[in-house]
Amino acid sequence: MDIVADVGTEMNPNGLGAYQFDLVYDLNYLEVISVSDAEELGKTGRTVKELGPTDVTAGQTVFAVYSYPPEGVSELAGPKNTVVLATATLKAKQAGVTTLNLENALLTDTKANVWPGAGRDLTTEDGTITILTNLALGRPATQSSTYDSGVASRAVDGNTYGAWGNNSVTHTDYNAQAWWQVELGAVQDISGIAVWNRTDCCGGRLSGFYVLVSDVAFTSTDLTATLGQGGVSSYYTAGQAGSPTTIAVNRTGRYVRVQLTGSNWLSLAEVEVWGR
Ligand SMILES: [Ca+2]
User: Fold this and answer.
1) 155 C-alpha to center of ligand 1: Å?
2) Are 28 and 58 in a shared domain?
3) 194: CA distance to ligand 1 center in Å?
4) How much distance in Å is there from the Cα of 134 to the middle of ligand 1?
5) Among 82, 100, 131, where does a domain finish?
C-alpha cells in the first residue's frame, strides 16, 4: 500500500518564498516513491525552481523549492497560510509502527490506502505513521458449506474481484445463518474489516449480516449463541454489502466471522482484516 503525506510549513507573516523539507524515515519500514511540489509558490506569480528529492536510498529525502518574483518586481509574497506545499508518497514495506520525521515542515495530512478505493486518515500530529496490513491474507478460512468450487479460501486470496467466473469468490450452499470465518493465527490489533461482495449477480444475498470478532474461538455456529458469547464484538450491516463495505473495529481479535441473519447462499469476493 502507498502512504500519501501532504506536507506544509509554518509561514511567516510576509509570506513564503522558499521551503525545504527533510524527510527522515526507517528504510526497514518505508520507501519514498516520489515527492512532488504542490505549486503553491507558482500560484503567486513567482518563478519556481525545484531541487531534489535527494538521498532517497539513504532513508532521508531532502526536497526544496525556491521561487523568485517576476523581473522588475522587488517583493511578491508567497502563500501566507498553512497550505499543502508538497506531497510525499511512500510505500510501506512491512507492518508495524514507524516514524516519519519531518524537519522544517509539518505533516498536515496523511492518508494510506488501507481501505481499498479510499484513503483513511492516520496519526499525523507527532509524525508517526501506523502501517496497516491485511491480517487475513492467506490465513485458514472455513464456511458453513461449500457449493461447487466456491471454497472459503477464495475470500483470503488477495483478489477482490467480484465476478464468480474469475474463481476468486466463495459460495456456500443455501444455509440458515450461512457463515464464513477466518483465523488470524494470533490475537492481533484490528483496525477495520473490509467485506467485498460478489458483483456479477446475486449481490442481495449478502444483506442483513453480522461481522463478528473474537480473541478466542467461536463456540457455536448459531448466530444468537455467538452474539451472546463473552468477548465477541458484533457489527451489523442491514443493507446489501458493497465493494467493499468497511467496518471500523479497533479492538483485538483472532477469529473473524461473517454470518447471515437469514437463510441464503453466502458469497464473498474477499474479506480483508486490516491491522498490525
Ligand atoms: Ca477473492
Assistant:
1) 4
2) yes
3) 12
4) 13
5) 131
| 40 in the same domain as 85 | yes
Amino acid at 118: A
Quote the mean pLDDT of the chain: 83
Is the per-residue pLDDT at 125 higher than 70? no
C-alpha cell at 196: 467485498
Band (208; pLDDT cuts 50, 70, 90):
very high
Range of the domain at 13: 2-131
The secondary structure of the chain in percent helix, strand, coil, rounded to multiples of 5, reads 10, 50, 40
Give residue 223 CA to ligand 1 midpoint distance, Å.
24
Position with higher pLDDT, 59 vs 70: 59
One domain for residues 221 and 107: no
pTM: 0.71
Amino acid identity for residue 139 in this structure: R
**What pLDDT is attached to residue 86?**
78
Sign of the four-CA dihedral 136, 138, 139, 143: positive
Q: Are residues 158 and 82 in the same domain?
A: no
Whether the CB-CB separation of 32 and 56 falls below 8 Å is answered with: yes
Of the chain, the end-to-end C-alpha distance in Å amounts to 14
Ligand 1 centre to CA of 135 (Å) is: 14
What is the whole-number distance in angstroms between the Cα of residue 34 and the centre of ligand 1? 30
- Could you tell me the distance, in angstroms and rounded to a whole number, from the CA of residue 107 to the centre of ligand 1? 35
Least confident interval from 89-103, 165-179, 215-229, 233-247? 89-103
Q: What angle do CA 195, 235, 194 make, to 5 degrees?
A: 20
- Is the confidence at residue 236, as pLDDT, over 70? yes
